[in-house]
Amino acid sequence: MEFYPDTHLVVVVLGKRLVNNELTPEGHGRICTLIEAQRRYAELTSATILFCGGVTQGQNRAEADVLCDAYLAQLTDDSIAHPLGGIWRENQSTTTVENIEFVARMLIKDIAPCHASNTQFQLMLVSTDYHLERIFQIQHWMPQQGLLSRLLHRCEQANVSIQLPLDVSQHIVAPYPYTGPAARCFQAIEALTPYRVYLEGLCQGVLKLDSGGTRLSDKASPSECLEFSAYEQAHKLAYDALEVLSRVSNIEPYWQRQIHRVSQLIANDPNTLDKAQLWEHVQEFHALLLDLNRYFDPENQRLNKV
After folding, report:
1. What is the DSSP letter of 250?
2. CA dist 273 to 105, 239, 286, Å?
3. 211 in a domain, yes or no?
4. CA dist list (Å): 58 to 55, 262, 297
5. Same domain, residue pair 203 and 169
6. Residue 272 confidence class, pLDDT cut points 50, 70, 90
7. What does the alpha-carbon distance between residue 126 and residue 41 come to, in Å, rounded to a whole number?
8. Domain that holds residue 163
9. What's the predicted TM-score (pTM) here?
10. Virtual CA dihedral for 272, 145, 138, 286, nearest 10 degrees?
11. What is the count of structural domains for the chain?
12. Rg of the chain (C-alpha set)
């Protein structure tokens, strides 16, 4: 792991949904991995730690508060000193998108003013492996849609200098704690996220398909090549995920139909749709992924039969 010289390190622990107002094994994993990193890297001693996550539906405690409390308790149990840069809680966000938006706001309005005006900050993210992998896949494949691009842009506008390595190995990565059919299905559904983000980019006009549809013309510009590469990679990842789902037995018929509908939407060339149809396409795709994600998530309170 690389630490940039002459920067102040800010470690951002991304939010994790609670169950009965308590951390799940995945949430605990993020805290344990952060603590282990502090034992291993002396540079984290002087860092600022920022916990993310507000109150989500069905809960009455903020994710950031529960994560932070677990972290402080673990520091005490392990006799580890509190980070010298202080601990902050961002307790309003309820999604990853909001996590990043509120982190940018806190960096600009709260954390940066505590330091000299010429301070450079290095950001290090803490989350589960699949979560960070998606964030960085999207950032590399379609930076126009990347959450980190938004954060960097907002900080740049506010004259807050940020160093944010785009290599996932330079961040604190917690292993996913589950195995088995439900876990495989959940991770496969998560792997459909880049294709959803790609479709949203088309809808918003941030991305566009080449007029040749699924073929790129010989006269394509570098930016068009990058966008088409995003389409190819997100599309392939989606088909690989569908292949994983097809190999899982004992999925209830209702959820099999939902997965089949997802596969139909992925097979439908977005280049053949007008703007209104594309928007309906994206909305349906997003709703299906949300339902499937919640159903297959091993940490969901509902018991499923996978």
Report:
1. -
2. 37, 20, 17
3. yes
4. 8, 27, 16
5. no
6. confident
7. 14
8. 7-174
9. 0.90
10. -60
11. 2
12. 20
pLDDT bin (cut points 50, 70, 90) of residue 225 is low
**Tokens 């966000």, residue located:** 93
Query: In the structure encoding, which two tokens stand for residue 125, read together?
Result: 């993210």
Q: What does the alpha-carbon distance between residue 56 and residue 51 come to, in Å, rounded to a whole number?
A: 15
Q: For residue 133, give both structure tokens.
A: 């992998």
Over residues 187-200, the pLDDT tens digits come to: 999 999 999 999 99
Q: How far is CA 36 from CA 28, 76, 154, in A?
A: 12, 14, 31
Phi, psi of 214 (to 5 degrees): -90, 15
* C-alpha to C-alpha distance for 140 and 37, rounded to whole angstroms: 25
Token pair for 262: 């997802």
Distance (Å, whole) CA 143 – CA 156: 16
Say which residue, 270 or 194, is predicted with more confidence.
194
Q: Which two tokens stand for residue 88?
A: 């902050």
How many Cβ atoms are within 10 Å of 64's Cβ, its own excluded?
Answer: 24
Residues 12 and 43 in one domain: yes
Claim to verify: residue 169 and residue 196 sit in the same structural domain: no
Spacing of C-alpha 292 from chain mean position: 17
* C-beta of residue 207 within 8 angstroms of C-beta of residue 246: no
Among candidates 176, 147, 163, which has minimal Cα distance to 28? Answer: 176
Does one domain contain both 101 and 33? yes
Give me the pLDDT at residue 217, please.
Answer: 45
